[in-house]
Specification:
Glucose Oxidase, domain 1, magnesium, globular, eight-stranded mixed sheet, eight-stranded parallel barrel, metal ion binding, Enzyme I, Chain A, domain 2, TIM Barrel, kinase activity, alpha/beta, 24 helices, 3 domains
């Protein structure tokens, strides 16, 4: 008998295969009194060393399967294993309480996990899974147990689990793992992000029923509707197989757009660029038809290490990206830390509301030596490609002018030293704060372009933390207020002969794209995997018609009104 379960659609697509139950390893830990605490600490340190070596191997393999940006999650795990406070607290417990390493480890990690899981911030809650992953690895070594290795799977399966740790997802081979369903997790969780990057269907947050699935049961994952079908009927299998064929036919047509410009059906051209976090993504960006890099997040250069990256390290990274993009424009954003991006070795102060605190350009301007090092590396690299520099979270004109002054100071120092730089680099700024959008007419006189960061602009405009589930209903991308702000920015840019781009989830959103086209957005920067689908979509739209739709949206009252209006208006278009 077929059974239907529901969850959150985390990665689109359809998968039909046998279930592979990934049960959590049973690691029984008992409290034991020991006589020689020094020897026990040595044993613990040996397991730390072994786990570090193992994680480095897993990271290297993960980089091959899922790319450097996703494999970088293991840098965070390595930092945990190198955190002196974490290690010393466990060793202190072993020594003072004369207890075994396994029990000291479990008690310490469980305490931290409980603190994380009770936090209102979704991102912090999800960090508990990293701690769990590290704990499980260490306990397995201490107890001599074996952990499941998903890389050994050699037949088509759908993974069924309570949750997938980063170590699990890093070992998924899309050749055989056709999809997965988990009881825990959210669409923003690490496992969901990996699924989207691998283009495998995934359902998370299946609250009831997954435990009833047996190893080997036939399962269908519907990543469009958020459904899991257990032991489906033959008719249901045939229906989904037909949907798979139709889906493959659509995606195969996207290949036609790889080398084509992004043009609406009435001849208006826009640019589709990629968001990247690593210099190693250049080849995949070009493979997916990107017309440039719309956002390189430099903070990932600073994460996963114990010290600041040197000027030379930064220079080589920026140079590699520019050379790899073969003359296409590359927008590199200066360091954007704080908020949901913590870099331990920067020792950022604790803040009750970090999204409104010491972050992005605010941090850089307070650390001018560090900021100038990054600017110097960028300017040195500028001769190797088409570089554009962008400042994050600018709120006041003074911030922008100070950042530009430091950039010009560094440029002059390099020229005086005989170092060649590109003297015609476009300088832009992120528009993420409502105050900036309202004053866009003033800022437009000082920059060459705007890039609207919609993720932050939405949460600041709606006064709703996008990572807090309790106020998630207020995080409304389609709220007319958001589009009114975007129009202000677009109009201000065009009045000064400047261009405006947009990065964030809205850049690839099928409801938002028609409105953004109508409002005059000229560059859409997104995950590279979305580019061909979006290009195909834009080819079906008329900017003349989208302007009319956008004008109507600006006079609407609710996000629901906007969504229903656009869906209805586009029914006959796409």
């Amino acid at each position: 008998m077929s059974t239907l379960l529901s969850g959150v659609a985390a990665s689109a697509g359809i998968a039909i295969a046998k279930a592979y139950r990934l049960d959590e390893p049973i690691l029984f830990v008992e409290r034991r009194t020991i006589e020689n605490s020094d020897a026990e600490i040595v044993r613990f340190q040996e397991m730390i060393h072994k786990s570090r070596a193992e994680l480095k191997m897993i990271r290297a393999k993960a980089e091959q399967h899922i790319g450097d940006n996703h494999a970088a999650i293991f840098d965070a795990h390595l930092l945990i294993l190198e955190d002196p406070e974490f290690l010393l607290s466990i060793q202190h417990k072993i020594q003072t309480e004369q207890i075994n390493a396994e029990f000291a480890l479990q008690e310490t990690v469980d305490m931290f996990m409980m603190m994380f899981e009770q936090n209102d911030n979704l991102l912090i809650r999800e960090r508990a899974i990293d701690l769990y992953d590290v704990k499980t690895r260490l306990l397995a070594h201490l107890l001599g147990a074996h952990l499941p290795n998903l890389s050994l799977i050699a037949e088509d399966v759908i993974i069924i689990a309570n949750d997938l740790t980063p170590s699990d997802t890093a070992r998924l081979n899309p050749l055989y793992v056709k999809g997965f369903a988990t009881e825990r997790g959210a669409s923003s969780s690490h496992s969901a992000i990996i699924a989207r990057s691998l283009n495998i269907p995934a359902i998370v947050g299946v609250k009831e029923g997954l435990a009833s699935i047996n190893h080997g049961d036939m399962v269908i994952i519907d990543g469009f509707r958020g459904q899991v079908h257990i032991n489906p009927t033959s008719d249901l299998v045939k229906r989904y197989e037909s949907e798979q064929i139709a889906e493959q036919a659509i995606t195969s047509k996207w290949d036609h757009f790889v080398h084509q410009p992004t043009v609406t059906k009435d001849g208006h051209q826009v640019t589709l660029a990629a968001n990247i976090v690593s210099e190693k993504e250049g080849s995949s960006v070009l493979f997916n038809g990107a017309e440039g890099v719309g956002l390189f997040r430099t903070e990932f250069l600073f994460m996963g290490r114990n010290e600041l990256p040197s000027e030379e390290k930064q220079f080589q990274t920026y140079k590699s990206i520019l050379v790899g993009m073969q003359g296409k424009p590359v927008v590199i954003r200066t360091l954007d830390v704080g908020g949901d991006k913590d870099v331990p070795h920067l020792h950022l102060p604790y803040e009750s509301n970090p999204f409104l605190g010491y972050r992005a350009i605010r941090y850089s301007l307070k650390e001018p030596v560090q900021f100038e090092t990054q600017l110097r590396a960028l300017l040195r690299a500028s001769v190797f490609g088409h570089l554009k520099i962008m400042f994050p979270m600018v709120t006041t004109l003074t911030e922008l002018r100070t950042a530009k002054m430091l950039l010009n100071k560094v440029k002059q120092e390099l020229l005086n030293a005989g170092t060649q730089v590109n003297e015609n680099i476009e300088i832009g700024m992120m528009v993420e704060v409502p105050a900036t959008a309202i004053m866009a007419d003033v800022f437009a006189k000082e920059v060459d372009f705007f890039s609207i960061g919609t993720n932050d602009l939405i949460q600041y405009t709606m006064a709703a933390d996008r990572l807090n589930e309790r106020v998630a209903y207020l995080y409304q991308p389609y709220n007319p207020a958001i589009f009114r702000l975007i129009k202000m920015v677009s109009d201000a840019a065009h009045n000064q002969g400047k261009w405006v781009g947009l990065c964030g989830e809205m850049a690839a959103d099928s409801i938002a794209i028609p409105i953004l086209l109508g409002l005059g957005v000229e560059e859409f920067s997104m995950n590279a995997a979305s580019i061909l689908q979006v290009r195909s979509y834009i080819h079906q739209l008329s900017q003349t018609e989208m302007r009319k739709l956008a004008e109507a949206v600006l006079h609407m009252e609710t996000a629901e009104d906007v969504q229903q209006f656009i869906q209805q208006a586009l029914n006959d278009v796409c």
